[in-house]
Design brief:
The structure is a homodimer of 137-residue chains.
Chain A (H helix, E strand, L loop, with lengths): L4 H7 L6 H13 L3 E2 H7 L6 H14 L2 E4 L7 E4 L4 E2 L4 E8 L5 E3 L5 E3 L7 E12 L5
Parallel strand pairs in A: 5-8
Antiparallel strand pairs in A: 1-3, 2-3, 4-5, 5-6
Chain A binds a DNA duplex (30 and 30 nucleotides) through α4.
DNA sequence: AAAATATTGCAACGATGTTGCAATATTTTT
DNA sequence: AAAAATATTGCAACATCGTTGCAATATTTT
């Protein structure tokens, strides 16, 4: 871990607290998108449920995390840095296996979408693929 | 409405019932993706909550509807025919306004994603864009 | 029309996420 | 370095979204 987590928090005017450091550490270690439950599990449910929810929400608000769309009924989050960005728009692409649930982050190249009116502002662009991964095919 | 809804249900070996016809009718009329709540509202909450959930689930299972990823905590659904398809893979693209919540379905063209291992099978491919729509910019 | 089968409605439950508020921790000020 | 100001936490209660079990009802098949 080369990044200074305390500095990251400070730069967003957030207090430096054990919960926030733990949650950030999980994201930097796993380097993929994670649900609330994933984080709780990674930290052996030592953190208060509600505080983790609040931490995720404030990180999204501050732009440290992005909220990633999924077909399930729980949200997923990824470090903003995890997505590629062209200045204005953050991009994520992921493959979710419908059988084992594994999430595979992907690199994206050369995407074009037609028919978006010119006065629309895109802030986040996500690709979600569902199917079967190599192990489950 | 040119499609025969009863025939559609019959061809999937589903009983033809008022609830199913109502839900299908809403999808064909609105021709966009809808949440459970959208459907309940469109039908003035005359249908039983649970029955609508079950209807949506069985329609997804039978391939009549697809489940569309969102960043929120409720699922969205669209008619399978609403997405473009190249035989194996269904594609959807939508723009969700972060301010007014409006969902705009989009046409997609010419998408390529690199780095997906060859033994992965993609069944559904969705693009979700978040930002501000024309009215909210 | 009766038998077989599938669907519905209701109550209860589970999972996911939020709010209010007092207690506590962090940061800032002196 | 202590006090004051401010932000965060933990807990209980609640809200929303979705599911399950099961008896009653509707649809389909014979």
């Amino acid at each position: 871990m080369e990044i200074n987590l305390a500095e990251l928090l400070r730069s967003h005017r957030l207090h430096i607290t054990p919960i926030r450091l733990s949650v950030l550490t999980v994201f930097y270690k796993k380097n993929t998108c994670l649900s609330h439950e994933d984080i709780q599990r990674a930290l052996q449910h030592r953190l208060d449920r509600v505080s983790v929810y609040r931490t995720l929400r404030i990180f999204v608000k501050k732009g440290i995390l992005n909220c990633i769309p999924t077909s399930g009924n729980s949200n997923m989050y990824a470090l903003h840095d995890f997505g590629s960005t062209d200045g204005q728009t953050v991009q994520h692409a992921l493959f979710i296996c419908e059988r084992c649930g594994m999430v595979y982050p992907l690199k994206v190249a050369d995407i074009r979408v037609t028919e978006l009116p010119g006065n629309f502002t895109v802030k986040q662009f996500d690709i979600v693929m569902n199917g079967k991964c190599g192990d489950c095919s």
